[in-house]
Amino acid sequence: MPALPFGPTVRAVIGFLVAPISLGVVFAIFQEQVGMSIWILQFAAILGYPIAALVGVPAHLLLKRYGRTGIGSYLCVSLAPAAALIGLFVVLPIVWAHSPLAMAHLAQITYAVAFSAISVAVFWFIARPDLPDEIAGRSDQA
Predict the structure, then answer these.
(1) Rounded-to-integer distance, Cα 87 and Cα 94, Å
(2) Residue of 15, 111, 109 whose CA lies nearest to 63
(3) Helix, strand, coil percentages in the chain from 3-state DSSP, rounded to 5
(4) Could you read off the pLDDT of 66-109 as tens digits, one per residue?
(5) Distance separating alpha carbons of residues 88 and 86, to the nearest angstrom
(6) Count of H helices and E strands in the chain?
(7) Are 60 and 126 in contact (CB under 8 A)?
């Protein structure tokens, strides 16, 4: 799949704008009620953009700095916060209180992990940080 015909910074910005709501857009398309579609898009934006800003941007900058630009590196980094959430909300309650809600938390976190991985993959396919900066015939330095 060819990269977008823009420089790497523009591709990354487009990726950060599209990826957090990509699953929300897909779910909204298949809804029969317009109100539910709008709610899904709002929910995806309210959750997705802050997470992308607080976790995704620093992770992208670090991975680019250290040359770890493959999709596997990006997916592994996206799973690290999910593993922390699983430990905090599932493992600790089971160990400390034998919480009956642990399975419900596990199901929610499983969805979060899957949605995170899909959003990271969408970002990676748009931004293509693994490609040389001049691959599209342009660079951000004018």
Answers:
(1) 10
(2) 15
(3) 75, 0, 25
(4) 999 999 999 998 888 777 777 777 677 766 666 666 666 667 77
(5) 6
(6) 7, 0
(7) no
Q: Is the dihedral of CA 75, 76, 80, 83 positive or negative?
A: positive
Tokens found for residue 44: 């995806």
The residue behind tokens 């992990």 is 113
Three-state secondary structure call for residue 116: helix
Residue 100 CA to residue 120 CA, distance in Å, equals 32
Give CA separation, 121 vs 17, 26, 31, 34, 98, in Å: 14, 15, 24, 28, 35
Residue 99 pLDDT: 62
Q: How far apart are CA 120 and CA 19, in angstroms?
A: 7
Query: Six-digit token pair at 65?
Result: 């700095």
Provide the token pair at 52: 């992308």
